């Protein structure tokens, strides 16, 4: 298991506006193998590519947080819901065109079950 000190990056899987905003905020990184820590998802992005990015980001030892637009998370919901590791933490975020729905958020669902509300 990687130490928490090695986890210094955030990753993002989302629509162009969300990814661009986060890149402008400074989260972008490209390593020596030309691997990035982001994936822009649009209507033409194959589901397999989204799944591959999620798998890659959640197994990298240098990533602490994976941000996923909630509407993209819905496309890979079984992967999101079955992910149980503490690090990297997977968080669902809203996008400009798709409002956030707390009822769909995997983290909030787990908290509800923990407290017996779900």
UniProtKB/TrEMBL annotation:
Keyword Ion transport part of the UniProt annotation: yes
Localization: Vacuole membrane
GO CC terms, sorted: fungal-type vacuole membrane; proton-transporting V-type ATPase, V1 domain
Pfam families documented for this protein: ATP-synt_F (PF01990)
Membrane topology label: Peripheral membrane protein
Family label: Belongs to the V-ATPase F subunit family.
Function in brief: Subunit of the V1 complex of vacuolar(H+)-ATPase (V-ATPase), a multisubunit enzyme composed of a peripheral complex (V1) that hydrolyzes ATP and a membrane integral complex (V0) that translocates protons. V-ATPase is responsible for acidifying and maintaining the pH of intracellular compartments.
Assembly notes: V-ATPase is a heteromultimeric enzyme made up of two complexes: the ATP-hydrolytic V1 complex and the proton translocation V0 complex. V-ATPase is a heteromultimeric enzyme composed of a peripheral catalytic V1 complex (components A to H) attached to an integral membrane V0 proton pore complex (components: a, c, c', c'', d, e, f and VOA1).
Name this protein carries in UniProt: V-type proton ATPase subunit F
Species for this entry: Boothiomyces macroporosus
Gene: VMA7
